[in-house]
């Protein structure tokens, strides 16, 4: 992801991960590991953004839109 930001001078990037292990009414396949994998993806992204930001002399935000249910 950081490579894409750097190569293409992106100002934002969007992960479109449809409600990991969301409600049963969602018409998508679910895997119980998705919930933990999503957390790991965000954690690794934050670490990479911090390293890249330090290199570039700026900071990068990370935000998510998630449902309010656990």
From TrEMBL:
Cited PROSITE patterns: GH18_2 (PS51910)
Any one GO biological process: carbohydrate metabolic process
InterPro entries in the record: GH, Glyco_hydro18_cat
N-terminal signal peptide: none
Annotated ranges, domain GH18: 1-70
The protein, known as: GH18 domain-containing protein
Organism: Iodobacter fluviatilis
Lineage, highest ranks first: Bacteria, Pseudomonadati, Pseudomonadota, Betaproteobacteria, Neisseriales
């Amino acid at each position: 992801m950081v490579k894409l930001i750097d190569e293409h001078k992106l100002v934002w990037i969007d992960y479109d991960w449809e409600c990991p292990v969301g409600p049963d009414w969602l018409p998508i396949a679910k895997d119980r590991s998705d919930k933990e994998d999503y957390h790991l993806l965000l954690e690794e992204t934050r670490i990479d953004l911090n390293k890249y930001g330090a290199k570039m002399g700026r900071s990068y935000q990370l935000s998510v839109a998630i449902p309010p249910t656990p």
